[in-house]
Amino acid sequence: MDGEEPARKRRNREHQNSRNGCGQCKARKVKCGEEKPKCRACTRRNTPCTYPNDGLHQLASAASAASSPHDRGDHNFSFTPIQSEFGVTPLSSGNARPESSTKYTPAQQEYRAITPKHDAVGPQKIGPVRAPPPTTASRFPSLNLNLEHLELFHHFITITATAISAGSLTHDLWRMTVPQIALSHEWLMHGILAMAALHIAHLRPDMQSVYWKRALMHQDQAFQGQQKALTNPTPENADALFAFTLVVIFLSFASEKALQGVGDMGYPLQAATRCLHMLRGIRAIDPAVKSFVERGPLAHLASLHPRNIRSNPTFRELSTEDHFSKLLVFSSTNADVNEDYEMSDTESYASAASSLRASFLKVEAVPEGEPMTPPIWHWAVRLHPSFVTRISERQVVPLILTAHWCVLLAQVQHYWFIQGWIDQTMAEIGACLAGEHHGWLDWPRSQIEEIRRMKAERGG
Predict the structure, then answer these.
(1) b/e 117-148 (16+ beta carbons within 10 angstroms → b)
(2) Stated pTM of the model
(3) How far, in Å, CA of 189 to CA of 180, rounded?
(4) Contact status, residue 85 vs residue 111, Cβ threshold 8 Å
(5) In this structure, are residues 215 and 258 in contact, taking their beta carbons and an 8 Å threshold?
(6) Axis-axis angle for helices 208-230, 186-203 (nearest 10)
(7) Chain centroid to CA 18: how far?
(8) Which of 120, 141, 160, 299 is packed most tightly, with the most Cβ within 10 A?
(9) How far is CA 28 from CA 22, 42, 203, 264, in A?
(10) SS3 of residue 221 by DSSP
């Protein structure tokens, strides 16, 4: 027995805990075999498997390699970061206000409620900082990575990823997996930087114009690169192309809010039609890309496609079934309400009404706890371009169907980029419709109010 004890101690000393396991095993608090590219546990569970990303350290190296006043012996410029609701962020120079005296807008107060509160340590000088020249350490020469880019990237992985997530698993995908993919695809990187800039503009009304300009610049670069990638889909860029379709959803809403403003959007229907045109672009993804994605790290997101949601043929509530039956008949037989209608409008309107009903049925069938966003966007993605044009022309049937789509949007009104859209769009639709058609708005209005009441009761 005495001889066995030292051996047992020796074995214990030889064992070392590893911190290099995948993020999914760490979240489940189980030992990871660290097999790559996918560990045995994640392979067995058929879940995504992501490891700490070495590419993130390259970004940190790029920041430290950037030229600064320290490098030139210039110590006359000091920078004190602003203490904001999402921590210490280098947005502008000047003295930070104490936490107790900071006044927050309603949007900022709402966002503070879903972000962890940082310890109040007071403003801290983090060293002299100036906008550096483009660093040569960047992996993307044309991206000209600098501190502005690093600020946006940091905000995306620490704040925006949480704000756009629909559960813990999608949170890891947005915070870790998608940024990792973007490190190899410059246009996707531009897309997430645009999202981050729009998010900061939402949280910082005093800096909106600055971040709107940055967002539009990154958005333009993102779409240009994505269009080139679409001409040659491969297994190597499939995940990036799929991730970008999700980025488009967020950009389509947030960008138009940025262009026209949340509180004073003068033409919400015009913004809505631009948004719908952007969403329709998702259809351009080659089917082969989806097959590649279903075998990669974004397989879970791909599995959330509406085609994988089994819905009932009819609604649970007989009153809802009756309403959509009447709506389908109205949409199919009233294309000639406007004098400039075309024969093709009848088919387009009937198809849009049928697709809208299917989207409502899909949302109703989403299991508790699962994200219901895919079927909500699905209606917009499948619209015929002529139907979207008729919305901009304020034609009766398209306006009524768009009002019903606002009911689905109310299900995701907690997203910062949706706030303001529903009420303003419904208001303009009501102003455009003649009195004889106003009755068609009663059902969507009552449903929107009911959804809001239920979410308020649940605290959501």
Answers:
(1) eeeeeebeeeeebeebebbeebebeebebbbb
(2) 0.65
(3) 9
(4) yes
(5) yes
(6) 160
(7) 33
(8) 160
(9) 10, 11, 33, 46
(10) helix
b/e code 38-47 from CB counts within 10 Å (16+ = b): bbebbeeeeb
Number of C-beta neighbours around residue 37 at 10 A: 11
**Which residue has 């996918």 as its token pair?**
38
CA nearest to 390, candidates 398, 382, 379: 398
Strands (E), 79-238: 82-84, 87-89
Tracing tokens 């925006």 back to the chain, one arrives at 160
The length of the chain, given as a count of residues: 460
**pLDDT by 10-residue block (mean), the chain, 460 residues:** 49 56 79 83 76 44 37 32 34 39 54 42 31 43 72 95 81 91 95 95 88 92 91 90 88 68 55 75 70 84 73 91 95 73 82 94 82 79 87 91 94 84 89 93 96 83
Burial bucket for residue 247 (CB in 10 Å: 0-12, 13-18, 19+): buried
Find, among 458, 12, 373, the residue nearest to 167 by Cα.
Answer: 373
Backbone angles phi, psi at 343, to 5 degrees: -60, -35
User: Are 331 and 337 contacting, i.e. CB atoms less than 8 angstroms apart?
Assistant: no
Omega cis (within 30) before 37: yes
CA distance 143 to 145: 5
Q: Residue 450 has which token pair?
A: 């009911």
Q: How far apart are CA 417 and CA 175, in angstroms?
A: 18
Pull the structure tokens for residue 435: 């009195």
Single-letter amino acid, residue 295: R
Rounded-to-integer distance, Cα 460 and Cα 456, Å = 6
Place of tokens 């189980």: 30
